[in-house]
Batch of 2 targets.
Target 1
Amino acid sequence: MRAADRDAWEALRAAGITSGEAPAAGEEHAPWYVRTMLGVAGWIGAFFLLGFVGIGFAAVFESASASVVVGALLVAAAGAFIGRFARNDFASQLGLATSFAGQALLLTGVSRTFDWDGTAVWLVIAAIEAALAVLIAQPIHRVWSALAAGSAIWLAFRAAGFPAVGTGVLAAAMAGLWFAELAWPRLHLLLRESAYGATLALVFVEGFVILQRLAFDLVGETLPGAGRGLGFGELLTGAVLVAVVWRLCERSGTVIAPRERTAALAAAALVAVVSSRAPGIAAGLTIVVLGFANGHRTVVGIGVLALVAAVSAFYYGIQDTLLAKSQSLAVLGIVLLGIRAAALRWLGPMPETRHA
Amino acid sequence: MPAGRLLVALRVLGILPDAQAWRRFLDRLTLFAGATALGTAVIFFVAANWTAIGRFGKFALVEALVIAAVAVYAALGPERASSKAALLAATLALGALLAFVGQTYQTGADTFELFSSWSALMLPWVLLACMPAMWVLWLAVVNLAVAFYFAVFGGLFGILLSTEQMLWALAAFNTAALLVWETAATRLAWLRERWAPRLLAVASGAVVTMLALQRVVDLRDVSRTILVVYPAWLALGYVVYRRAIPDLFMLAGGCLSIIAVVTTFLARHLLDDDAAGGSLLIGLVVIGMAGAAAVWLRQVASEEQT
């Protein structure tokens, strides 16, 4: 057992949370960047495996039902392989690439086989990916499946004509998964990896929405559905931010006084409303807050990057003039600094540290 | 362990934030997000070229913001988070001021001159702030200045050559900056946050890998120098991040770069004759390389922990 693990066990025993001897060390989990590297390599491998199937067995690609059958068989075989050789890195990587290739075949086949509208197809794809997230207990695979399921749910809402509602639903699902991570310890691996996938799905969806708006602006077209209320998706995501703050206050119990709770909710609501004209800000803030609340610095980093990207993209959109955007940002800055000033006045000065 | 006890356990271990940590986090979030929003609001304001205010009025407004931000820094002293945020806002407003000078007087200056002037003039504040984020902002501005320089002065052979020159310049600058950062961090504690050198390594690695890929696919007549530089860059990265400053992130990035270059090389030479067989072989090689990387990185991580 590592010294850090031993110290942690001693700290828990001193606090009366555990007793007895420390258990044997469990399986080591690779850090996120190693998993990211392996995930990217898995997709590169899958691309060439798909190329092999597509060129060597062209009939499989040409027939939609053959794509479904072969894709499903590949995914099932990969799932069984990953389950059987979970501790072998080579086998795990082979299973990952095979499953990715199988999913590409399966989902292509599903979308071509059935004569459904877009909504039904995306819902079926979301269900398949959600099932894979539960059934195949490999971290990279699970994050990918949750990402694909979250994106498919949003695409289903988009196909039905309600992309803004889809953004709100996705943000709420992401928040729910992060809260569930600590509420159901037995399922924490499944929930944490799914929450990572949902977080990435929200970032990608927000990025897609922003790029789509920029593309329509570029060619001088009006974005379909824009008339349903610009900023509605951002307002819904802002509502999720307020709900997250409320739930965090509940979770903290008596540590946060009722007066502070009210102030936190009011501040979150104010930020949500002020930032509703700038896509991606509320989502980025929600991710940052959830990441900090659950002690995941990587999630905080994802949220900060999403915020920087959102502000940069905000410059180029033409739904508002640059002057209006400048005013929105100035108001947001003043509100944020005002909230901080109010907190300092109300709660007393912060003990300063040397480095920010 | 029941959920209630789990929350307590995670708080005892310092994994979940306590009330004090929450307050510090929200304080920093509102402070730096607020300062950034105000700074970018000034940039957007200048870009809007609003005619209701005359040019002297605009100059007065932007200069007043710069002076006010620097005054806040001077009044609070160098150690406080608020003073660092004030310098950040001053730096952003300075960029807006320089852009406004170019916009108003039509100096004929190119975009790269705006960014190079900005990087030179912000440098004293970056030095004063002692904050990794300010250095990263400075490095980003210099990267933009370099990119815009080569967009304007592409050399005699046009855009293709200028792209290669730009990539070489960015690779050299970011790699040098990374080495300087790592060396300086041995003396200056505030430079030891790992996210900033990792970001620099991503910038350096992406550009060097791109040069190697261009050479492999022969899309552009990339200099043969990369055949020496790429292995040397990998070897240097191995020595520094395996021996001197163990960092698994950097090693994982190097592995991904090798996988990308080897895969592209194989695809370039194997797919022409037997596309199906070549695809299968390349797929299996990629899986083998990734599996070997996973085994090696796991071993390195285990050695570092013990």
Note: Residues 11-153 of chain B form one domain.
Target 2
Amino acid sequence: MNRATRRKATNTIFVGLCAFATLIALGALVLILWSLVVNGIGGIDAHIFTMDQPAPGSPGGLRNGIVGSLMMCGMGMLIAVVVGILAGTWLAEYGGQTPYGHAVRFLNDVLLSAPSILVGLFVYELLVKPFHGFSGYAGAVALALLAAPIVTRTTEDMLTLQPNTLREAGMALGAGRGFVIRSIIWKAAGAGLLTGALLGFARISGETAPLLFTSLGNQFFNANLTQPMASLPTTIFQFALSAYDDWRRLAWVGALLIAVAVLAVNTIGRFVARETHRS
Amino acid sequence: MVLPFRREWAMDSATIDNAVAIRPVRSQNPAAETIFRGLCFFAATLLLAALAGVVVSLAIGGWPAFRQFGFGFLTSSEWNPVTEVYGAAGPIVGTIITSILALGFALPLALGISIFLVEFCPHRISRPIAIAVELLAGIPSIVYGMWGLFVLAPWFATHIQMPIMMGTDPNSFWGKLFYGIPNGANIFTASLILAIMILPYMAAVFRELLLTIPAQVREAAYGLGSTSFEVMRQVMLPYVRRGTVGVIMLGLGRALGETMAVTFIIGNAHGFPHSLFDSGSTIASTIANEFAEATSEMHTSALVALGLVLFLLTFAVLATARALLAGQKN
Amino acid sequence: MFGDMHMFKTFVAAAGVAALFASAAPAADISGAGATFPAPVYAKWAEMYKASTGVGLNYQAIGSGGGIKQIKAKTVDFGASDKPLKPEDLNAAGLFQFPTVVGGVVPVVNVPGIAAGQLKLSGPALAAIFYGQIKTWNDPVIAQLNPGLKLPEMPITVVHRSDGSGTSFLFTSYLSMKSKGWADKVGASDSVNWPVGLGGKGNDGVAAFVKQTQGSIGYVEYAYAKQNHAAFVLIQNKTGKFPQPEAQNFAAAAAGARWATAPGNYLLLLDQPGANAWPITGATFILVYKDQANPESGAQVLKFYDWAYKNGDAAAASLDYVPLPLAVKNLIRKQWVANVKAGGKPVYEAK
């Protein structure tokens, strides 16, 4: 076999392997989604959104969990995205190569791997125990602590990859460093930053353990962040491991809702980003 | 007006060293500059403080256990809540094995997927497929756990474990490697689930990295007549090498700390796993399993100490990975 | 796009939205946390209670350990535990505990040819199986207890709980009672160093493994055994009989128990006397402070459980829980007056 044929063959094998890898991932997704849909779709009706968590045998829905999750995830993501992007920017643009910067980066990666239950415990010591009460705020902070490292990591990686020519061009026009970052670099890395945020959201959307120690959960509807709040993952966790069929069905519905929410946020997020870029 | 010279701005471009403003512009407000830089620094420090806080609270909570068992806590595999003797070796070994296996499965898959989506996939379907892969990240981990327990484990037991058990001599090397109760709940299947869980994060970030490579770089390589494989291997992958480290850290981080998905399917035996298909436990699964019900002070302290050990483990793994990769850089 | 002004505007908008949500909405009046076992029945009772009195009781199942920790940290109005605290621990923490509802632990098997309720085991035999001493189903000890039953020569796979749980605590306490070897070498706790077998997470995990593995034996809460139509095992009780694992037989165990003489209500309903008493039964407990800092919330908690004692029996039974006998309930009511006080006066007196 001469060299050209060998190179071509290697290439074909390579393409085949990459396609195969994609098929595996898609296959796993289909299998898991299939379980979700088969078990969850039967339980979806208007009640899910209008009624609160029931006791076994009573009619009910997931309203309090949905509202609680929206509020705590929303607030958590707000904190995580702000802190994460700013911190990632500092690492990429300002002090990333200093010893302090190395420490921050390294410890950020360690925080990434923290079992969520331990982060929840920390927030419990900080925001629950001293105040003698569980609250939605504590839950939001715990979620923020889990999403922020992902956003930071991704932000730093994306920003570092932007070519220096962009920075030089901006500064040559007389713009200040910060202005260059905000108006040029952030825009250029926009898609990557968005990915970081979406991944952070995907992570915290299904987190249970930290919420158990911070927001506790609530059987009734509560939109007051200073009180214990329900959330979909904690409800799912409680219902899925119970003996009652109606509770288990609600658990699958809740899981399906979370997956759909992540899909919706991903799709909408990318759509909005594409539209903004176009203009 | 001359821009004050700052050392940190001297990246690898001489132009910035000599940057001189032509005329003051609104975008050059020094106060805004300082505030912005200060905010960024504050955010980074906030993260550092948060982590320091977590470590401190773990150290305080775990101190009674360390004081009681000393270094033996790390080497003993006896975990007995009744006699209040705790040793973390079993979960430590389980964590290391499952994380390495999961990363080993997930990394090539993630690379393959992102390369496929960026290079070979027809443009129209690449975005939906990318979103589909990211959707894997959005499935709550408890669903992974339940799917693993009710779907993967029985399938694995019938279609993989049984045939292997039938086909190998129990005393041979392969027999010993694959020995285990055929119910699909072991460290191997737990690693498979973990791999599927960390896959979307790695694939998504890696895809973004590849998309950032300027078109000229790729086109130049293609212009020279390289095949896609060669362009990828010799041009694109080296370009994103630093980002690849980040991708690996992301995946490793998730694998080390993942709880729910692993707990359902790892069999949760406290000792050392004796084979690939044996039950085991990880640090995260042990904490998740026992924390809620742990009533005695020592039990709780031992679990918190286990959490601290996980942090130290992550420190060690990440530091080693960095050292290895730094050595590779030319 | 990210000019300073724009960022500022976004911050203000976000703060406004947050403030909107943070506006006061009526929260639950009482909060409690702890044991997972009674969570469904407490949820049912809370729902009924709110419908009838308008007072909300928010109970969350974070585990018995969690319940004890939280009541000690005073972050909840009451704690709940499947494991009763010993009198010395109660006194050290200034807590009072009382039982609310009863449940049982049922061993289940997956042995070809054996249907539900066919297999009979004694306490010592059960301990020997879980210890790993009895390794196959056709072992003479098992055969002796089951004359006429065809037992296959199949290895026994033990399935236990991987997570800490009150169910494990009850089960291992029973095994410790019935086997000195077990008591010495393994002991009783929500989480033990199991000599053999694999661990499933939750009752579900155990039930799933038993279902998937031929020749296996595990143990689950009564509700799970009933809902999943599992092949349950009959255990020999103190009088030598083999009662069915049914609600009335759990109640029989609770009725025979001597609550009045148990200090701090520390009582495990294991191996209780009575022809129909199921041997592996247990109550679940509520923990409140003896000296209430807030007499109003203390009264609310006791009022709720008084209401539940009066009106909650049917609901509990429908969820496969076993209500306490009336005599025990009246005893508890008297104990409230004597033990739960604020400033020297009892916070609540049941009418």
Note: Confidence is low (pLDDT under 50) at residues 9-25 of chain B.
